[in-house]
C-alpha cells in the first residue's frame, strides 16, 4: 500500500468502501475459553454473548459458538489438546474458514492452532481491530486503526490471514483488511518505518486538534461527554438530545469517530455534547493509546455521562470496565463529575404505579454526582437528565449579581458569552441587575471587567 490512502474513498465511506458486499459471508466458529481460576467480573455466559456480538459486528456467518473449559493454559495452543482435536474435526466437517478465539493469543499459539485445526485463527484483539478497521470513517480514525494494527502485527512474523482479503483484494484496510498485501509481507524494518510515519501523522493531527481546541476555549461552551460500554445506547441518547443523525444501531462499536453537537439546557446554557467510541472488556492497550486523540473530548469534559444499559444483566461488570478505561486515560470522579445514565428502562418490567422494581436495588458504581433513569427510545427521563446536567455544571461556578448600565451593551454581550444568565431585575435609571453564574476559568476576567458593580461579598 502506498503511504497515502485514498482520501476520497475514505470520505465516501472509509474502509467500508473497500468491501465487496457481493462476496458470501465467511463461515466462522467461535471458541470462548473458560479458564479455571481466572479473575473476571463477567460471567462466562455474558462473555459468550458479547463475543458473539463482536463477531456479528463484521460480515461473517457464525456456524458454531462453544465454551471450552481450560484447566491450565497450554503454552503451545492455549486450550488443551482434546479440545483442539474436537475443534479441528468440527472445522473440517462444517467447512469453517475462520476460527475466532475469545482471548489474547501469543503469536506461536495462533500459528499452532492454525496448523492443528487446518483453518485460519484470529484472537480477541485481532477481531476488535478488524471491527475498528471497518468502522473508521475519518482520516484520523483510519490512521489510528492502522497504527494499532501494525503494533499488533509486529509480534507476528508472518502475515496474518484476513477473512476479508478475498473481498478487499490487495488494497484492503482495517485489521483483516489492514495495510495492503505488499506492506504486510515486508520485513520488520519496513513495518517499523511505517509505524514511525503513522505516529508522525497522528502527532500532526493532535497539533491541529490542539490549535482548534485553543479556538474552542475562547468560546464559553462547556463539554459534556457521553461514555459507556459499547451498545449501551450512547448514540441513541446523543440523537435524542441533539436531533442529530449519528449512526445508532444494536451493534457493537457502532460509533467510532467522536461527534460533537451544541445543545441548550433548560435555563438557556449552551454546552457541547460529545459522543465517543464505546468501551469493551479487554480493549487492546495499543488501541486505547492510538485512540487517545479521539478521546480527548472526554479528557477535556466538564461532566461525563456514563451510560449504562440497565436491561443487560451484565451491566455492573460492564460499568467496571468503563471506569477502568477512564482510569487508564487519567480520569476519575475525583477530577470530573460523573452522572450515571441508566438507559433502556423501557425494557424493564414496570409496576402499576409506574416504578421499576429492578432499579430499587441498583446502585451507582463508585462516586457519582447523580444517577438518572432514562429511555433513549421513548424519551422518558431525558428532561430530568438535562436538568441534572445543568445542576452539576452550575455547581462548578459561583453566582453573582452585577449592575450593567444602559450604555454598556458590550458588557451584556460579554455576560451572555461568558456566563450563565440565571435572571435579571427590572431595569431602572441606573441600568439593569443581572444574576449570573460564572465559572472559575472566567472569574478573573469577570471581576476585572465589572469591578465596583458586583453586589455582595461573593465577588471575593
TrEMBL record:
Residues that hold GTP according to the record: 228-235, 253-257, 275-278, 343-346, 375-377
Domain of life: Bacteria
Subcellular location: Cytoplasm
Keywords: Coiled coil, Cytoplasm, GTP-binding, Magnesium, Metal-binding, Nucleotide-binding
Keyword hit for Ligase: no
UniProt family annotation: Belongs to the TRAFAC class OBG-HflX-like GTPase superfamily. HflX GTPase family.
Protein name from the UniProt record: GTPase HflX
Organism: Devosia insulae DS-56
Amino acid at each position: 500500500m502506498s503511504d497515502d490512502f485514498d482520501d476520497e474513498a475514505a470520505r465516501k465511506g472509509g474502509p467500508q468502501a473497500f468491501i465487496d458486499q457481493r462476496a458470501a459471508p465467511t463461515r466462522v466458529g467461535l471458541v470462548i475459553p473458560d479458564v479455571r481460576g481466572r479473575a473476571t467480573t463477567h460471567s462466562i455466559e455474558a462473555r459468550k454473548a458479547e463475543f458473539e456480538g463482536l463477531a456479528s459486528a463484521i460480515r461473517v456467518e457464525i456456524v458454531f459458538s462453544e465454551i471450552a473449559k481450560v484447566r491450565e493454559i497450554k503454552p503451545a495452543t492455549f486450550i488443551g489438546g482434546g479440545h483442539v482435536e474436537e475443534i479441528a474435526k468440527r472445522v473440517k466437517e462444517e467447512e469453517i474458514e475462520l476460527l475466532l478465539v475469545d482471548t489474547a493469543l501469543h503469536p506461536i499459539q495462533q500459528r499452532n492452532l492454525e496448523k492443528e485445526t487446518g483453518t485460519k485463527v484470529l484472537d480477541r484483539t485481532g477481531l476488535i481491530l478488524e471491527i475498528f478497521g471497518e468502522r473508521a470513517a475519518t482520516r484520523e480514525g483510519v490512521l489510528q486503526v492502522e497504527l494499532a494494527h501494525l503494533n499488533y502485527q509486529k509480534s507476528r512474523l508472518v502475515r496474518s490471514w484476513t477473512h476479508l482479503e478475498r473481498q478487499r483484494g490487495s488494497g484492503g484496510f482495517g485489521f483483516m483488511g489492514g495495510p495492503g498485501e505488499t506492506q504486510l509481507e515486508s520485513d520488520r524494518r519496513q513495518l517499523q518505518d511505517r509505524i514511525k510515519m503513522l505516529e508522525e501523522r497522528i502527532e500532526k493531527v493532535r497539533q491541529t486538534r490542539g490549535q482548534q481546541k485553543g479556538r474552542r476555549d475562547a468560546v464559553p461552551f462547556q463539554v459534556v461527554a457521553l461514555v459507556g460500554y459499547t451498545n449501551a445506547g450512547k448514540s441513541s441518547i446523543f440523537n435524542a438530545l441533539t436531533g442529530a443523525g449519528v449512526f445508532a444501531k444494536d451493534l457493537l462499536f457502532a460509533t467510532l469517530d467522536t461527534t460533537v453537537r451544541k445543545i441548550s439546557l433548560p435555563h438557556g446554557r449552551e454546552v457541547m455534547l460529545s459522543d465517543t467510541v464505546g468501551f469493551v472488556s479487554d480493549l487492546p492497550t495499543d488501541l486505547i493509546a492510538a485512540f487517545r486523540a479521539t478521546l480527548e473530548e472526554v479528557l477535556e469534559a466538564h461532566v461525563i455521562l456514563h451510560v449504562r444499559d440497565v436491561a443487560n444483566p451484565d451491566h455492573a461488570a460492564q460499568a467496571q470496565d468503563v471506569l477502568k478505561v477512564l482510569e487508564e486515560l487519567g480520569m476519575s470522579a475525583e477530577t470530573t463529575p460523573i452522572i450515571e445514565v441508566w438507559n433502556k428502562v423501557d425494557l424493564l418490567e414496570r409496576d402499576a404505579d409506574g416504578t421499576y422494581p429492578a432499579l430499587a436495588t441498583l446502585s451507582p458504581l463508585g462516586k457519582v454526582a447523580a444517577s438518572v433513569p432514562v429511555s433513549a427510545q421513548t424519551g422518558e427521563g431525558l428532561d430530568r437528565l438535562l436538568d441534572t446536567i445543568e445542576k452539576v455544571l452550575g455547581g462548578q461556578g459561583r453566582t453573582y449579581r452585577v449592575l450593567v448600565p444602559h450604555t454598556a451593551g458590550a458588557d451584556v454581550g460579554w455576560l451572555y458569552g461568558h456566563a450563565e444568565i440565571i435572571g435579571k431585575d427590572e431595569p431602572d435609571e441606573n441600568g439593569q441587575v443581572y444574576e449570573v453564574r460564572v465559572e472559575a476559568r472566567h472569574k478573573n476576567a469577570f471581576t476585572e471587567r465589572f469591578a465596583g458593580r458586583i453586589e455582595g461579598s461573593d465577588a471575593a
